[in-house]
Amino acid sequence: NHAEHPFMQTKGVKANDVTPMEKLLAGVSGATNCAFVNQPGQGEALCGGCTAIALFNQANQAPGFGGGFKSGLRGGTPVTTFVRGIDLRSTVLLNVLTLPRLQKQFPNESHTENQPTWIKPIKSNESIPASSIGFVRGLFWQPAHIELCDPIGIGKCSCCGQESNLRYTGFLKEKFTFTV
User: Fold this and answer.
1) Domain locations in the chain?
2) What are the CA-CA distances from residue 131 to residues 31, 51, 60, 128, 149 (Å)?
């Protein structure tokens, strides 16, 4: 968790209540039938790696928190498609974006805002033309103002099961509006 620019977070979030980490794990909780698929407590205390993945997934693959929170740029339930190769190595290589291909697909990239939202946060009531969102800013778009609470100490990550020096148990979220 970077002191000035924490990954996919906005510093100084004002919230009355702490939200448990399980709310970042889309589909793990919230429904009465979730215990049939997911074990209870998976979002109890997450290591830094699982927290980073959860923040990215929440911003890009999951519906918004509801009640005034927006979904990611790709909508509430986007589908990601990968090209499959004959083996794992070729599959990975077929799905890598190379710099020449990016430059061909995004020739006007220098005319867009390319800083991620945790470096240059979205302002409340801001109107943002979609054409002004650069590749990096769009890839790491965070539609919610989220800030992790201080971590707790050493223990096992409830998500991946690995020992970790720091684990996160909650975050703050703040409603704000913007238009793309």
Assistant:
1) 19-179
2) 37, 30, 18, 8, 34
